[in-house]
Protein: Tryptophan halogenase
Amino acid sequence: MTPESIKKFVIVGGGTAGWIAAATLGNIFRHSEVEIELVESDDIGVIGVGEATIPPLLTILESLGIDLVDFIKHTQASFKLGIQFDDWHTIGEGYFHPFGTLGRSIDGHDFFQCWLKSKAEGDDTPLMAHSPEAVLAQQGRFFLPFEAQGTPLASTTFALHLDAVLAGKYLRKFAEKSGVKRTEGLVESVSRSDKGLIKSVTLQSGVEIAGDFFIDCSGFKGLLIEEALETGYEDWSEFLPCNRAVTVQTENMGDTTPYTIATARAAGWTWRIPLQHRTGNGYVFCDKYCSDEEAIETLLSSIEGQPLTEPRVIPFTTGVRHKAWNQNCLALGLAQGFLEPLESTAIHLVSKSLALFVRLFPTAECDTQLSDEFNRRVRQDYEEIRDFLVLHYCTTQRDDTPFWRWCQQMELPVKLKAKLDLFKVHGGLIPGTEELFQPTSWYAVFDGMGVEPVGYNPTLDAIDYHKLKQSLHSGKTAIQTSAATQPSHDEFLRTYCPAPKI
Structure:
């Protein structure tokens, strides 16, 4: 007998995760009889995950057929070339983590190894001088794609800073045009079958909404995945101890930087995310070392511009559900897990989970072979990102507060320790093909945090160093020259994608 296909999806919770799911599924089933209904309530505030994003967001928009300029205007977005990290290694020092790729291989040799060889020969050119994104960011510029062809800027990679609430509204409009039904209401109870599958949710109004598959975007609460299915949550506080964040929005001041700023503080770190109409600010901290009142004071003393909102404290527990897909329920966003927003991975995890779900798309019976593979891969993604976040903390040389002294002594995840040990030999790094953070990201943080290998790959000694030096110099000069001819970030925004005044 042929298994029953899924005829109806029910998404519980709107916000960024819920409406990305609705837009994605709505787009896929636009010309079919599959129904998609999203339940949300205006009475529940949106936390607004992911105001800073990473480049895969642009792939999502493109796959949905969304016009990038239109999206930027409606979400008050600005461009992002990477993240500036200040005071993480020691107070007063900073480094840049760019998107994109560092340099190009030379005579078949990995670029980073070429740079290590040149450094060993006495060349003191910073690694980031070979990154188009880092150079553009340093100059406060953004690039004109049609003028970048044939230049080192042609491969420049970028993402967006955006207003998450406006992005949710934009995606809602898109999804509803695709046929997604929105129902206003609060879920009061969940009904399950004898096999344990979710059959329906009942709203406070008494309306019952049945479905074949449910997507839980209800936030930390996990209304379906946790309260109904009791899936369980794995706490990773032993690796990432920060468990609270305080946020505040401010008026814009000065130039709109084409990058996020993450500044290490006494018990965590603060972010600054410039949009076209305002700036988002926040302080991620550990309550073992800092009270809410101290965190608010630290944040307010660090912001630029007048506050537009009252400080808002958000508690969280870093970790991941034991199963992101359990029975006929898929958890997304905060209902799936939480990793602090240091590398802006929240929206990426939502979209990658959806892409993987589509690759493993089930019938109404939800074969566990599919969900097991899905859960294995999602966990792998979370562990990869967790380890990369831990790298920012464990390599610090700060010992000025109890928090940073704890970070220096923390026990490392096994895979991260192995990666550090391998790198320290002669800069080796072998990433997985589907991993988010490719070598440029690891090199940027290693270099910025002062993690240096003992040497370089010995095969570099067979290369003509004079020729190598000339090649590196030419590449660096070409990036600097090309970047200097580009408009400022603000000028680019005003000319090509100005957002309406709010």
